[in-house]
Amino acid sequence: MAHQRSSSLTSGRHNGPRPHPLCLEPSDLTPPSRSGSARSLLALGCHSSSGGGGGARAAPDADSDGDGGGEKAGPPAALEAAYRKAHARLVPLFMVIVGFNYIDRTSVAFAGIQMTKDLGFGPAVFGTGSGLFFLSYCAMQIPANLMCVRLGVTRWFTLIMLAWGAAAAAFTAVRTAPQFYALRLVLGAAEAGTFPGAWHALSLWLPPDRVAYPFALLGAAVAISQALAAPLSALLLSLDGAWGLRGWQWVFLGEALPSMALACALPWLLPDGPHQRGGRGLGFLTPEELDLLRADHALRTAPAPALLPPASGGLKPAAAPPAPPAGALRTLLRVLGIWQLWGLALCNILKGA
């Protein structure tokens, strides 16, 4: 039986689909890939997907012929269930975070009419404040993602949500244009890490072929937040005079406090990733599902040689990833020459105007 299994893996034809990497046994690997950690991860994945059957793999379909080697089996059922749980827990939470982000940054558009009357701010002040917001927002994108990796997802999102909530609430005390400019700079810097951090966090839990749908939902959260911002701001403006605050002050305060409240709850809601050992935020997964996600992430991020089934033949270590092209500058200039990108950018600029 062992000889038959070995011959089916080393020959160019397979009976049925090729197994998912998590369902391979250490004996099926070529010598360069047989590290202790790889063996333990593979044994764990195979054991979990087979329902505790001692690591035995599922038998090929009796009706399949010998030409089925071009197909690749999907992930184990237990791993699929873990993917679904991670999606159900993280994507709605990030949609709420993104929604709060956009509501806080656009609140000045609804408060501006009363601010103009009370503070004497003209269009030039609001236009300059908008430009300063996006200046710090763009400048902090890469540093923010580096800090997210260094500090961890939970601490980073707690920090930036508290920061942008405090900055948005501080607008209630604005009296001069320089104060307004300074707070717009701070708000842009604080909110810069939201989208890069969300993408990084989701990539820790889901493989690349499963992140497009969550990213689309985060984009939908932006549209939903814009639809909700107007009636919410109108309600807050109607509180004009309550507790000695003007309506525009209620807009900033009422839209900042939910962000700060959610930030305080994030340590119980948002885990750092499947690599997290113990702590809060992981109760939505069983220990077995967590181990499977850790094994899957380790296989996806392992340096070459990786344990990947080739297009034909037996299992072999994957080749090292290709080096970046020498003409990186030429590639960048070629990308910047794509007119569709500039058209999309122009549409976004006109929409914002």
UniProtKB/TrEMBL annotation:
Single GO MF annotation: transmembrane transporter activity
UniProt superkingdom: Eukaryota
Positions of the UniProt region annotated as Disordered: 1-75
Topology of the protein relative to the lipid bilayer: Multi-pass membrane protein
Name recorded for this polypeptide: Putative tartrate transporter
Pfam families to which the protein is assigned, alphabetical: MFS_1 (PF07690)
Residues annotated as domain Major facilitator superfamily (MFS) profile: 90-353
Sequence ranges of Low complexity compositional bias: 31-49
Transmembrane segments: 124-144, 156-174, 181-199, 211-238
Keyword entries, A-Z: Membrane, Transmembrane, Transmembrane helix, Transport
Subcellular location: Membrane
Record field: compositional bias (Polar residues): 1-13
Gene Ontology CC, one term: membrane
Lineage: Eukaryota, Viridiplantae, Chlorophyta, core chlorophytes, Chlorophyceae
